[in-house]
Specification:
Layout: H1 2-30, E1 39-45, E2 47-51, E3 54-63, E4 66-70, E5 75-80, E6 87-88, E7 93-97, H2 100-128, H3 134-160, E8 162-164, E9 169-171, E10 181-182, E11 187-192, E12 197-204, E13 216-221, E14 229-240, E15 246-253, E16 264-270, E17 275-281, E18 292-299, E19 304-317, E20 320-325, E21 332-336, E22 346-349
Helix pairs in contact: 2-3
Length: 355
């Protein structure tokens, strides 16, 4: 019996020691702080600013004076007096078609006109002397006028055999050669006055109330990615395109050196309606299917925490983005390190952050 008592006491001592050891371990673990350390971030202060209201569009550069030249008559090309890329003056001949028939007709009609003129002048003197009947005088006058009309018609046909520059400009690539036979209306070349360019573009019709001639426009092109050209809104179309519901506009370039008609252009129109906005760095906004989110810093007792907030964003400019709703000027937002943040997370702000 006494042996059982010794065994029992030994087991109590063993299990009691184990229990004491476990209790001490659990007490030590429970006294430890498992709170995650603060997350280091960078932050910036939301600022109130005044930004101009802008409208973006794309358009095509075109010359104020620019045409595709073609012949008004068919025939064989017998002379080309300019080269592709030449600068020409208004009225300068560019191309001549075979006009031998018209030249021969003009010589014959000039002779007929001279004869009709002499007969008319003679009959004019005789009618005053009442030496000829009125019918003869009327016939000679009609013959004279008919001869003048026939000569004018031939001169017009001769003009149709020549292609001349309607205005001063630069000749494009000439698509005809001496000896070619061209049909009426066949394109020959283009003529563009590069000293004055404009841009045609369209915007949705809903913007019509905010548009008016004289608005300033910034123009950029792929040819000059680092240069901004200035333009002025010149005119608005009198109707909306029923197919696209867009309104056609035209702007005049203030400076166009280096640009060519047909170039693609991106336009930013200043609507002359400045508005007050709240701006933060673009990096402060996290984009997701749930909405655009910023982490707003909250200063508590001895610690700083963050709170996610869904905001509405607007235009961007020089690395800043406008917040149209959800944020107020003066609030502090995280700009770097948002991927590690969650609601209520403790943070420390990097000393390098400029606020």
């Amino acid at each position: 019996m006494r042996a059982y008592l010794y065994v029992f006491l030994l087991l109590v001592a063993i299990f009691g020691g184990i229990a004491g050891y476990l209790y001490m371990k659990i007490a030590a673990v429970s006294s430890m702080d498992f709170t995650p350390p603060p997350i280091t971030i960078e932050a910036a202060t939301a600022r109130s600013a005044t930004w101009p209201s802008e409208l973006e569009a794309v358009g095509t550069v075109r010359a104020v004076r620019g045409v595709e030249l073609s012949a008004e008559a068919s025939g064989e090309v017998i002379a080309i007096t300019v080269r592709s890329g030449d600068t020409v003056e208004a009225g300068q001949p560019l191309l001549t078609l075979n006009d031998s028939v018209e030249l021969a007709s003009r010589k014959r009609q000039e002779a007929n006109l001279e004869l009709a003129r002499l007969l008319f002048e003679r009959d004019s003197r005789l009618i005053k002397q009442k030496s000829i009947p009125q019918s003869q005088f009327d016939r000679s006058r009609a013959d004279f006028e008919s001869a003048m009309a026939q000569l004018a018609e031939t001169e017009a046909r001769l003009d149709n055999k020549r292609v001349v520059a309607p205005f001063a400009g630069t000749v494009g690539i000439i698509r005809a050669r001496v000896g070619d036979y061209i049909e009426t209306g066949a394109p020959i070349t283009t003529l563009q006055d590069l000293t004055e360019l404009e841009i045609d573009f369209s915007v949705p019709a809903r913007h019509f109330p905010h548009l008016k001639p004289g608005l300033a426009i910034a123009v950029s092109t792929a040819a000059f990615p680092d240069k901004v050209f200035r333009a002025t809104l010149q005119a608005l179309d009198a109707k909306v395109d029923p197919g696209s519901r867009n309104l056609l506009l035209r702007a005049t370039l203030d400076e166009s050196k280096g640009l060519l008609p047909g170039m693609f252009a991106r336009l930013i129109i200043d609507l002359d309606q400045p508005r007050k906005v709240v701006t933060i760095p673009e990096t402060a906004v996290s984009y997701s299917l749930h909405g655009n989110t910023v982490y707003v810093l909250r200063q508590g007792v001895g610690e700083t925490t963050v709170e996610p907030r869904v905001v509405e964003t607007g235009a961007t400019r020089n690395g800043e983005i406008a917040i149209t709703a959800g944020l107020h000027g003066g609030e502090w937002v995280a700009t770097v390190g948002q991927n590690k943040l969650y609601k209520g997370a403790r943070v420390t702000v990097d000393e390098k952050t400029g606020m």
